[in-house]
Predict the 3D structure of the following.
Amino acid sequence: MTKDNHRQQFPALANKAYFNYGGQGPLPEPALDAIYQAYKRVQLGGPFSAEVGAWVVQEAMLTRRAIASELTVPPETIALTEDVTVGCNIALWGIDWKAGDHLLLSDCEHHGIVASVMELQRRFNIKVSVCPLAATLNEGDPVAVIADSLRPNTRLLVISHILWNTGQVLPLAEIVKVCHQTQVKVLVDAAQSVGVLPLNLIESEVDFYAFTGHKWWCGPEGLGGLYVSAEALADLHPVFIGWRGIVTDANAKVLGWKPGSQRYEIATSAYPLYAGLRSAIALQHEWGTIEERYAEICRLSKYLWERLSELPDVECLRKSAPEAGLVSFRLTNGMPHKKLVDLLEKQGIMVRTILNPDCVRACVHYFTTEAEIDKLVGAIAIAKFSFE
């Protein structure tokens, strides 16, 4: 499938240059139709009928399988959630914390996760420290920084696979190996890596991997997941509890948890979204393999990085070509970044600000075009005149 034909299936790409895939990907037409048809089927079958109940079970199974195939893991290791933050909270709150336990996170984590950790600290009197991974963007060894920050009482490391603010790709397998040497488990915020990187979570040996379908997979908002390794399952207790995660007998007596990660699922969800996410994932495969898509993302992000580096009033945070689709840069002419973002949006060009570090972030996907990038760079080049 050509890139032009592929792009035509995304209504949100019409009449605009879109660079906010790290915030939310555009939903393709086939996924929209799949969601509509699923809702229609529920209503025609009867929302609370035996037929629809069996269909819901089948839909969940097919969705876990589709996700598991992308992450190279068994389907039973996947819990379906609403988003990344829910998945991270399941892992954070499911650990049996004791006062004095230590949790380590990086200085590049999303504020939603930082707030969760702060509440853990308040409620359980655990110790929390932050390791300086931001400083390793252009030089330094993030594995060594993490290793030096671990303590004898460290129980969990919380990091992102791709840092949401700078776009740095962390060497996950090496980090997990260092942590496991001292029995430290690893929770990964995978908001920016799922749908971008070729993944094999079994080989990485990561314990917890929380992700969403609405960013780089371009699926519907409100559907994500959590991978829990077979080794980590036994020590992670369900926090949010409902009928989807428990086993009962013929008299509705609770017998225990569902096997595998399904025990972390709760109750009624927007089940038609399952079909939408599977459709969105399948559409990406029509264009190319994950390896081919990732190579195109890297090629296009390098092109954007090179074009931005040519502008006199722009400084890219990375000193070398990005390893993923997030390209962060700052203005050096004093123009507020929010003003630039607002000016660009008025021209149909969508980017966003990042507050820490203070910068602008533009995201490219495999179906981004050079023409879109040229339009963005050209608009930035003349934006200073609006400021002056």
